Amino acid sequence: MPTALITGATAGIGAAFARRLAADGFSLVLVARDERRLASSASALHKRYGVDAEVLAADLSREEGLAAVEERLGRGVDLLVNNAGFGHPGGFLDTPVADELTMLRLHCEAVLRLTRAALPYMIGKGRGGVVNVASVAAFFPRGTYSASKAWVVSFSESAAAEVGGAGVRVMALCPGFVRTEFHERAEIDVSGIPRPLWLPAGRVADDAMRDLARGVRVSIPSARYKVIAAIGRYVPRSLMNLVAQRLGR
Length: 249
Known about the structure:
The chain is an alpha/beta fold. Helix content is 53%, strand content 15%. The longest helix is centred in the middle third of the chain and has 29 residues, at 97-125.
């Protein structure tokens, strides 16, 4: 039975991945900060799908948390989903530098270190996958969040090219607005976001697994967000900034 480790596994996209992978027969290693919530999620998944669900309480913005998850990955998993992340309610100049550095550690250092810890086992087996959750915001210049997610995309594409010959796949997943706890936790007002731009978390996980199986290196769920990402990639910077302002943070 294959094993998947998911960070940020108790809510939103991470929880959707846990449900999808459990339904596919994966044993799970669930990683998040809240041990009680982890235990509840693991119990529910085991009861519904009959799979083993290991819990690992870890704060990936701290060295001890990162080291603990690196150690578990070193013992081998078949799929890693780097999903943990957060947002800021204010702009760059309104956010304490310490909070920005915490974001960079979680979105960039943790993704790098956990991917690096997972790959040797996968390469040794000649198969495996890493899904690094970025965002369609990666294609628009909107503060440290967007910049960190742009790094995730670039890093994932580079890693995918390096390990592709070993039978291992690395993919950046770039969803748009998803119905999760993310915006509420960040105290970001999303009341003005049009309903058609919202995606269900289950749809995002399903699209991601389909694209990973196809060898896609940058997965953008839904046609509407493929168009939005294309705008971010190819239109002049002045127009891109205008689109970013209209879409919000």
